[in-house]
């Protein structure tokens, strides 16, 4: 499948082919832009050859045959890396509408050039889950990595975790504290998982909601006759997210393991993370675009589909939570922004027309993230362009141990680059987006700043509003364990052991 493909989201797979073979240039000079990295920005040229950045400096001269792009007045930044997606995921009796081709095509159109997707085990088996996702990812048109969920515990699971880390390039495992009866894990499993992650140098991730209490909340809503999408928000209030976040943080502290809290949606959860960080604990908080931007009033919309498209877990919260999450992102309490892209179309969302518990949970965001974060954080004056690069790309590369190959515009880094025009305007609509979903939770939004060119793996894949994507061209990015959160953790363990002042060497009484 190595043909030059024209993207057509109306095809079943999202693929539509034209006859021409790929004529995409492999030598590119980006001239005169402001190159933005997480620590520094400067006006410079960027020269790309065979998928790599070769040079970053002013006034680079090149021979004929090089495609030259004028980036004067524009930002040249690392392509976005989305730490949290679900493509081709089987979930709640159906499968997400975006697969590894359509989801990634959408991502590239929005300036994201890599994502990390969650492998879901098959019948609890990690190796079967891994094989299934290797198949799904054969459609990939951009680089990707895998996290893996842990859904059960027995003698085999920890051995398979070791194989995933040492042989398959997976350095993070997610534990769902919600979705009772399907993905949810108990506290003893979470503790075992945290210990195993620590011994492997892998990063433990949690979906933090109290699943037992959510189950109770759902029953309560149904008994009250609240069966619509608003029941979703009412059944799982912020306190249940705050409780689970606090519990996961305390369990991680108990075994001195780093922790990554995915999709932080509430002030309650964010404050638990801030408190832990203040006490010196290694806890990372990931907000997602929907949590930063939206509020839960939409779940009360009288039109079922309009309301149901916003159903995700933890729920989109009441007005005010988004603002505190934005402030926490700007001050560094929250470190990087994901999307939790997990799309279902109107037909799928309608499975829950009579019972909100059956609405497949998930929203879009892969194509929209870079624009919306710029608009909400940089245009609003809450964040600099360098900080923007950090939260949309560099921090993810650092955390998952692939920096500076990814997340930087440096000589030797992969040529995943966007050219961003801060004076152009973006518009969002399901009619023009590249996801296969027929709805978009950001419908009708527009704002300042636009990704005009995306270069992925050294090829121009998005330019003049046109995608040129090649299924099968995306590479799997193997991610090594022991990221920076592990540096010095052995010293903390040693300090803990010393602090015990035990066992006490006692004199046995002579009886
Ligand atoms: O609603 C959501 N978040 N769907 C995807 C699964 C998850 O919990 O991340
Ligand atoms: Zn989750
Ligand atoms: Zn998710």
TrEMBL record:
<dbReference type="InterPro" id="IPR050378">
    <property type="entry name" value="Metallo-dep_Hydrolases_sf"/>
</dbReference>
<keyword id="KW-0479">Metal-binding</keyword>
<keyword id="KW-0378">Hydrolase</keyword>
<comment type="subunit">
    <text>Homotetramer.</text>
</comment>
<dbReference type="InterPro" id="IPR011059">
    <property type="entry name" value="Metal-dep_hydrolase_composite"/>
</dbReference>
<protein>
    <recommendedName>
        <fullName>dihydropyrimidinase</fullName>
        <ecNumber>3.5.2.2</ecNumber>
    </recommendedName>
</protein>
<dbReference type="GO" id="GO:0004157">
    <property type="term" value="F:dihydropyrimidinase activity"/>
</dbReference>
<comment type="similarity">
    <text>Belongs to the metallo-dependent hydrolases superfamily. Hydantoinase/dihydropyrimidinase family.</text>
</comment>
<dbReference type="GO" id="GO:0006208">
    <property type="term" value="P:pyrimidine nucleobase catabolic process"/>
</dbReference>
<feature type="modified residue" description="N6-carboxylysine">
    <location>
        <position position="174"/>
    </location>
</feature>
<dbReference type="Pfam" id="PF01979">
    <property type="entry name" value="Amidohydro_1"/>
</dbReference>
<dbReference type="InterPro" id="IPR006680">
    <property type="entry name" value="Amidohydro-rel"/>
</dbReference>
<keyword id="KW-0862">Zinc</keyword>
<feature type="domain" description="Amidohydrolase-related">
    <location>
        <begin position="75"/>
        <end position="461"/>
    </location>
</feature>
<dbReference type="InterPro" id="IPR011778">
    <property type="entry name" value="Hydantoinase/dihydroPyrase"/>
</dbReference>
<dbReference type="InterPro" id="IPR032466">
    <property type="entry name" value="Metal_Hydrolase"/>
</dbReference>
<dbReference type="GO" id="GO:0005829">
    <property type="term" value="C:cytosol"/>
</dbReference>
<dbReference type="GO" id="GO:0046872">
    <property type="term" value="F:metal ion binding"/>
</dbReference>
